[in-house]
Amino acid sequence: MDATQPSSSVKTRFLIISDTHGMQFSSENRPQQRADVAIHCGDLTEETKLEEYRDSIELLKEIEAPLKLVIAGNHDWTMDTPIFKKKVAEVRPPLDPTLVKVTYGDYGEARQILKQARNAGIILLDEGKHTFTLRNGALITVYASPWTPQMGEWGFQYSSDEGHNFEIVKSVDIAITHGPPKGIMDYTIDRQRAGSSELFAAIARARPRLHCFGHIHEGWGAKMVTWRDQPTETPSHFTDIDNDRSTVIENLSGFTPSRFDTPEIKLEKEKKLNYYRQERCYFTSHCSGDIIPLGAGNQTLFVNASIEGSEEQPMQLPWLVDLELSPAN
After folding, report:
1. Residues 6+ positions from 1 with CB-CB distance below 8 Å
2. 85 — phi, psi (to 5°)?
3. Strand 10-17, strand 319-325: pairing
């Protein structure tokens, strides 16, 4: 993508995935589209083994993008050194240290493996703000965080008593987190909201152009949220979203047959799923002149890019997103 837009904006394409859990693309589902930036929102692994990290690097190398931004997820707990040490210390009978080293690596080894992939354009982001000048001439400011509310004994999780401070400033264009904000594509299979209220509040105040995440596989989808004029004192999805001016771009119900569907609707869903499987991505564009252009500062595009799916649909679609960014100069 070349910077053919007016000098005030640069059209930029993102390919977004999450929760690959050690899987590999096949020749039938490998994304073929080129992107300016690829994003992996965490859970590179299923069992946090060194072999899975290496497989994840190979998966990322297959994506055609000069910059590939990666964060950890809760399954990637060997990158959370205190949790790694705690898990090893608590195992009874004690584990053979040699076996631990061969399978999971030394403390910090998984992180080092990812950092050594930088020459392939793969950059592991620690929590915080990061700025990049892209090859297409755009400047992008990213906030990254692997932290999610506690659900079992996993990495990068915080208890409800502790909470977490997501320090997202208003200059951030893209927020990359492992988990969703509370109230946005965060329903679990048993219809419980698993998102973070602290994260929602931080996003509502900063209002980035894009917030992408995964973690809740069944929440796959995208939504263009229009914000109310001013954030409330304690922002929540009940008070701060203008639902009448917000739009669901897509979710799994758009592909999944329901017992309430007519035969015509079932056929339409099947055709749509087959079409996007052939495309190998779900594409959406929110630039000037598009049907739903993004209003920077007033709207945020939320994307749940969880790839691991269900038994019926083992691999969910990556997201291909076009947005406009400010030029670097």
Report:
1. 11, 12, 13, 34, 36, 136
2. -60, -40
3. antiparallel
DSSP assignment letter at 206: H
Collapsed DSSP state (helix, strand, coil) of residue 217: helix
Q: What is the DSSP string of 60-75?
A: HHTS--SEEEE---TT
Cα-Cα-Cα-Cα dihedral sign, residues 25, 41, 63, 56: negative
Residue with tokens 């739903």: 292
Asked if residues 174 and 201 have their Cβ atoms less than 8 Å apart, the reply is no
**What average pLDDT does range 253-271 have in this prediction?**
90
* CB-CB contact of 250 with 317 (8 Å): no
What would the pLDDT profile of 25-50 be if each residue is shown by its tens digit? 998 899 999 999 999 999 999 999 99
Residue ranges of alpha helices (H) inside the chain are 50-61, 81-90, 97-104, 109-115, 197-206, 263-279
Burial of 296 (0-12, 13-18, 19+ CB in 10 A): middle
Cα distances from 107 to residues 50, 86, 90, 102, 145, in angstroms, run 12, 12, 16, 12, 20
- Strand stretches in the chain, DSSP E: 10-17, 37-40, 67-70, 122-124, 128-133, 139-145, 148-149, 157-158, 174-177, 210-213, 221-226, 247-251, 282-285, 299-304, 319-325
What's the CA gap between 285 and 288, in Å, rounded?
A: 9
Give the residue among 184, 215, 221, 216 at the shortest CA–CA distance from 201. Answer: 184
Query: Residue 241: helix, strand or coil by DSSP?
Result: strand
Instruction: Render pLDDT for 190-237 as a digit per residue (tens, 0 to 9).
Output: 889 999 999 999 999 999 999 999 999 999 999 999 999 999 999 999
Residues 166, 172: contact at Cβ < 8 Å? no
Residue 117 DSSP symbol: G
Classify residue 139 as exposed, middle or buried by CB count within 10 Å of its CB (0-12, 13-18, 19+). middle
